[in-house]
Protein 1
Amino acid sequence: MTVESTAARSKQPRRSSSKRTSSPKKKAAAKKPAGDPGLVQLLTPEGERVEHPDYAIDLTADELRGLYRDMVLTRAFDAEGVTLQRQGELGLWPSLLGQEAAQVGSARAMRDDDYAFPTYREHGVAWVRGVPPENLLGMFRGVNNGGWDPNSNNFHLYTIVIGSQALHATGYAMGITKDGADSSVIAYFGDGASSQGDVAESFTFAAVYNAPVVFFCQNNQWAISEPTEKQSRVPLYRRADGFGFPGVRVDGNDVLACLAVTRAALEHTRSGQGPMLVEAYTYRMGAHTTSDDPTRYREDEERKGWEAKDPILRLRTYLENEGLADEDFFASLEEESTALGKRVREAIRTMENPDEMAMFENIYADGHALVDEERAAYAAYQASFAEEGN
Amino acid sequence: MAAEKMALAKAITESLRTSLEQDSKVLVMGEDVGKLGGVFRVTDGLQKDFGEDRVIDTPLAESGIVGTAIGLALRGYRPVVEIQFDGFVFPAYDQIVTQLAKMHARALGKIKLPVVIRIPYGGGIGAVEHHSESPEALFAHVAGLKCVSPSNASDAYWMMQQSIASDDPVIFFEPKRRYWDKGEVDKTAIPGPLHKARVAREGSDLTVVAYGPMVKTCMEAAAAAAEEGRSLEVIDLRSMSPIDFDTVQASVEKTGRLVVVHEAPVFYGSGAEIAARITERCFYHLEAPVLRVGGYHAPYPPARLEEEYLPGLDRILDSVDRALAY
């Protein structure tokens, strides 16, 4: 597979161009994060580095450019998904626009042996885990209902029923503990899922068994048409309090903060302290899916306010202001984005419909007499047309 | 080694013990399965011998139990989950139907979900509501699941181990009113296939198909019918998904008549499926329509009425009479 995600490339040592960006540390000594004091932020919407007493981060220029690249390519792929739906190539596409930092930052905090349990919108996480982007399109095109081996990249199948995967993540984490391993798990879900019983039950199980799982809630403010106020009276990160484990709210549009906080959360779980909840405070810039019309329930003003907090723009400003990336970098990244779009378009246009017998396959691992009978009956039925034709 | 006589519940305990011994990936989990040994004592002594890490007392949350069992299976474990009573499975129904049943197919066969869900089911024990239901058709209807139910101690012993060894999710329905019935268990025997039906009594006039708790009732009905000179063949289905239609078909081709008996409501019950399939397979052999005996389209009644609701000897024999009258 030719997957060029930065994570895949990051296996090579990359100390050579290690221009450390420690200078902002000094610069920011006097600066406090703006806005909500409970919100962990390391890079302001204006692209300025700020410090947080609990969450430090020190990245090389190469690593910073890598985060930027992951976000840009994720956005490009996502935009291609929307376009392909509009062109009729996909039945549906759930856009992640606006959530690139939350996904790339959290996923980049993971080790290869960690495991991610996504919703259906984690295209950025998939990218970082090295899942070929084409594989994500199958279920939205209607050629399969999942379509990849979760163990290839430790990235579970997309889960459409809201919140179910939080329990799978917790069970998987319980298994890690039983194995005596120090891997960890991230359960991705959204603000809407925070109301689901399965999410509450996963908090209970994870707490009781001290399971190494990070509950990563992307609060993108909207569960289709329902604002977060319809889900909770308290900030979502505080839900953890009642279950007895820590919760933290991070600026979900700040890739540095998302990386730092998730790293710390994963370390927390690895060190045997049990689960942790991270609420990435972000915004769904697009519609819920291509079938949705947000003009029916929210004001454009709100969206415009969040445009100023764009996760990609702020990192670009920072890279430019600090001289950490030159024009060549941005230009070649643009070319790479275009090439990725082309690759995805070509993949979708050559994606073959499944063989009609595929619906009888993989229903059971050990087989089932009824499936065998129905498969044979269907094959005979199909064959009858061929005989008529002869 | 000679066969041992043991209660059906004890046979399941022994079976779980053997599986725990043979495969370190096997886990037992559920509410009160540890120290207490389960409300029916089916897991009695297992936590003491295998530790809290493998025999796990869970929080009181059925969806959580099945959902985390799925995660454990994805990590390579083989969880055997206990749902305390039939009527308590519905909080987990979403995880079973939406997640457990479909995941193997969704992953194009790349992952396996060897999860066994034990459900003590059925009535006849004078319990309060939600403790006497027979929801097997609700699970048999779902592709990706397998459903079995032993009727006796020997089958309970072997079918449990076979279910644990299966790489597919198995819903294991335990006939709770037969938990204390004793039977011979030969641990050195070689068991037949998990999903094969068994002819429990040979006969020539009419076939009776049953599974789980109703097999014993049907055997009693057959004995009573024999006194009246009627020869009933009783088939213990053992598996409700898949169903061994070949065994039923062979019997009906011989007898020409079929009565299906289960505790679950007749409407949309497994008897409907068996009647339809056997009618199609045996149309020219049938001397009478396939008749069904089961529960009514009513909520499971209060315990003082359950004897009226559940198929008993008389109701089964009444249907036998009606089938023979054609």
Note: Chain B has two domains: 4-185, 198-324.
Protein 2
Amino acid sequence: MFGLDKKDTGLLLIVAALVAFAPILLNPFPEGSALAQFNAGYPDLMQRFVIFGIFAIGFNILFGLTGYLSFGHAAFLGVGSYAGVWMLKLLTINVIPAIIMSTVVAGLFSILIGYISLRRSGIYFSILTLAFAQMSFALAASVLTPITGGETGLQTGLNDPRIFPEFLGGGATSGGNIPAPELFGLEMRASYELSVGGWLWTFNAGYYVCAIIMLVAFYISIRIFRSPFGMMLRAIKSNQRRLNYTGLNTKPYMLACFVISGMYAGLAGGLMVSMDPLAGAERMQWTASGEVVLMTILGGVGTLIGPVLGAGMIKYFENIFSKINDNLLHQWFAFMPDGMEDFVVAIIHPFIGKGWHLTLGLMFMLVVIFLPGGLVEGGQRLGSVFKRKKKADSSIHSSTAN
Amino acid sequence: MDQIILQVLNGLDKGSAYALIALGLTLIFGTLGVVNFAHGALFMLGAFCAVTLSRILTLSHTVIDESKKDFLGNPLKVEVPYIQDWFGEAAGATIIDWAVPLSILFAIPIMILIGVVMERGLIKHFYKRPHADQILVTFGLAIVIQEIVKYYFGANQIPTPAPEAFIGSFDFGMLIGRDPGAIIYPYWRIVYFLFSAVLIIAVFAFLQFTTFGMVVRAGMADRETVGLLGINIDRRFTIMFGIAAAVAGLAGVMYTPINSPNYHMGMDFLVISFVVVVVGGMGSLGGAVLAGFVLGILESFASLQAVIEALPGINQVVIYLVAIIILLTRPRGLLGRKGVMED
């Protein structure tokens, strides 16, 4: 289907189903139960899952296929965000121009940065991209304040021109409120809540817009992975010098890959501001670039589904771990004897709440050390263990049968 | 003219910090071939060694002073550090005042120990892995170290003053025949510059004039051959890692009075230090030091009022701009050797 082979179609369909039913799947615990805080099915978090999923998919196209580790990818996300907000301010509150423009602007920006950075490889490439991103961050936070809003950030306001006609989302809304981003009248923050039994499911318009775009992005990334172009990128990863010796110019391929990856980041930025029309400079800081590296590594570099998994996992734990506090821990471990309970809580305490970065760092180190292929490799290993067991079982059976 | 001299001086202290961190990074890279993203965290740990020592020194107990009254008329409770009990009041106060310089002695063994443990416990297992993996695992380690420090010391800056003798400024202009008050420079920054100069010279002398240093240099040039000669080069490299950690730590210790330490100061310096290393030339010790000072001075020149007016924002980006230009025109950096991380 769609020019994919059976396996990839299956993967795409599974992801599509998961994404479509995420509001239900991510809310497995009934409202009001003790475990309800583990529910992730609220719009804001789900939007972040898919948006960062797009960001990580794009990063994976660069790092996973070519092995070029960019430490400045957040710059494209930031540039995309700014472009998106400007579209929302100048043209229309409809999100389509914002999303398209953020992708295009990030693409142009990545041509510029890629053209220079790709002249070097290895660690030099990492540092060049890092330098560019830090430069963009510093400029956005200081000198470019008229364009970027400086440290307070850029957001939509009441007096924005919005030159498009009213029915296309132009103009200020009546009632003097700042209009919310919408898609032909469908507000991004609009939600439909469905309550079944103890469960409360929220189907958010913005989430589904992001989700559809994410599926398209995922599909394109599968096509890139399976295309001759993707093959070429993999060849660059395994031995660039040999490719050069055979008379191939790898530069255009690398640049194309870098720009595609940058456009994914810009798209993520555009979606981010379409959901919440606010763009700040801190989005471009190198810690933000580090985050997408973490996501991709955690999920599995060079795999199709890995980055999405990693993005989801990091965003989920960021929310859940920071919500857990000592009182909650005491509740959970209440079954233990008193001294033991305090002891366990004291041990876990540094890893939760504000300390969740510590957990993240440790988790990340463990993955890099023991599981370089990330969660996907972990899953495969588990799978192969089970398979081997089955095979062993069946061979025993067959031998007894003989 | 006064402005120029002043900016050169201003650049020196920041430049020394860059140079020291970059020197440590290059030592690690040159010996072990590892790109250490946790080096900024080591700098930060050094700074927190100073904080810890000054906290230890000011550990105190409460004494009721009958001679003074508080506003309610009760005898005043006074916090007396144990140090003052042991060494007498004046000597104790002096020791507390000199906490930052004293931390040097405290930090050296701790930082060497941390460095050795880090190398043996973690980095040893990453020699054969790709550079990207090394970057990633040390990046993770940096996050972990940061968060641990944040957990124990909090997220706020912790002011750690210099000894009273060094508070105040030195009229440098008088010394070279300028008007008084034209070129004023804080004492502690002079101390910092001299200290780093001594430290840098010491590291170079150690590598140049001791047998140990000679073996290490030989190992940097050709590790395998040195190993074949029956020398345990791994152990020496481990020690060099410890020394590099100590250099970063000492840079951090002495930097505390200039900039109150907080848990992410290391990351801020790390990014720039990497740029410094690359500008200086990967694996070149002299290049790292040179580039550190050059970039530090350039940065302070770029923050001159006249320069900012001509090129707005230049003070924020000058280091990165220079790095980009250098990388594109002189791919090996200022003093880079051939064959080190060529691709």
Note: The longest helix of chain B spans residues 2-32.
